[in-house]
Description:
The complex is a heterodimer.
Chain A: H1 5-33, E1 36-37, E2 47-48, H2 52-58, H3 61-91, H4 99-111, H5 114-125, H6 131-138, H7 149-177, H8 182-189, H9 194-222, H10 226-231, H11 243-254, H12 257-288
Antiparallel strand pairs in A: 1-2
Chain B: H1 5-35, H2 39-43, H3 56-64, H4 67-98, H5 107-116, H6 123-133, H7 139-145, H8 147-163, H9 167-175, H10 180-209, H11 212-217, H12 225-230, H13 240-260, H14 262-269
Amino acid sequence: xxxKKTQVWGLISPTLILxxxxxxxxxxxxxxxxxxxxxxxxxxxxxxVGFDNFRKLVFDASFLKSLSLGLTFVAICCLxxxxxxxxxxxxxxxxxxxxxxxxxxMALPLAMAPVSIGSMWVLLTNPDVGxxxxxxxxxxxxxNIGVNATQAFATTVFMDVWHWTPFVILTFMAGLASLPKxxxxxxxxxxxxxxxTFRYITLxxxxxxxxxxxxxxIMDTFRVFDEVWMLTSGGPGTATRFVSIHLVREVLRSxxxxxSSAMSLFLLYLTIVICWLLLTFxxxxxxxx
Amino acid sequence: xxxxxxxxxxxxxxxxxxxxAIATLFPIYxxxxxxxxxxxxxxxxxxxxxxxxxxxxxxRPFLQDVYGxxxxxxxxxxxxxxxxxxxxxxxSTYAFSRFQIPGSSNIFFWTITNRMAPAAVFIxxxxxxxxxxxxxxxRIGLIILYCIFNLPFAIWLLKGMMDSIPKELDEAAMIxxxxxxxVLVRVIxxxxxxxxxxxxxxxxxxxxxxxxxxxxxxxxxxxxxTTGLIEFVTVIGTNWGEMAAVSMVCLIPAVVFxxxxxQHIITGLTFGAVKD
Lengths: 289, 276
């Protein structure tokens, strides 16, 4: 079948042009801005400073703290969500009436606007109106995420678990449903108990699905913004100031575009490195199986 | 009476399902309850079963305050972005699916890297570029901008669907004298219609849900409803009832669309992990 090349390019070029305009040019622009001192408040305009912004960045204690806080958040969320999702999905492998309804309910948080999830958690946790402070107060726990840093951090973790464990459950349920049946029959014949079956059959077979889900969750929790911004805006103090929130606050507060660009670029680079490392790790461990 | 092992297991499963369902639905229910109460009732302690429905929380922000306009903006931006994304994605996915195009195997990687990068990284360049081009605080600006995450996603989702349409069909149509555009319009689009609908719904939801770009790039005219939500939290006090009501309105599309096309939507939301 002969089709003119120009016609094919006619089909793709609008997409290509648009993606270059909004996907590539901004990145180039960030790279360009990152070597300037450029603030809306300064009268000097743009001043070329070379790598000074980056030098400042590596010694910026508040940025490094937000980075480590963000990574802690990633670690805790994944450590809770993946095992919890695995456990629940495992129990729910059996066919039962109403599985479809259950799946639909679980998919709800995934489609809801993250900001409105944040606002729902504001309504749950606010000392004036929320049931959480009210009932915790009754049993003598002083719960106020506007003041207590540990409680604020724990609440953001809890919110993320509420929001995203359904995603993990749904993926694992699908993964479990697609596993071959033979190994299970064999293990039944060999008299393996439930834990052994899970440990030596389900876990290795499900490994690709688990790794991919873990990958998506790591990247998503690292970039978390909307819900936490709505719930705590990064506070109290810097207790929930994860790296995206720190960046946005920096931009809004200082209006220092050069330095913010350097921070953006560093973050983008870090994301690509993490992404690449994880994907390499996944493909290596896939080959081993 | 002896309870069978299977019955016991089923009982356990239902208990677990109900617990999870309650945990998932409770925050939504609570938001609804707050939205149904007047200021006085809200501050008089938690009440899980209010007897009255205080509809003013819904009518005042949308009819008297600015939220009516925010809602219209959200609808226009989401719909405009969906139309743009679908037209571009159908065209380019058809090309990706049928012809050898260098780099087309990287679409998936392209999609995930676009999705994985923190959106906050792009706010500085977009703020400056949009200011210079006069696109700040315009709906058209947001419509174009949202392509950055929706377009790769739509292409990736549509690719699988178009790949499954047999090539022989378009070859037959070409022999009958159809041009490449004729094949697309007469053969591919009708056959891929369900897939295109699902992609459109998900694109629409993502555009509707977006917050960060809209909050940085709009001030007054083009503010969307998600952005308006955060305006409730003020120093002088928050109108909780109205905030809850606006949150509920934000949730409506998600609920409606999941209700309409649940299985396909779930597949899209879990990035193709759940297939049935």
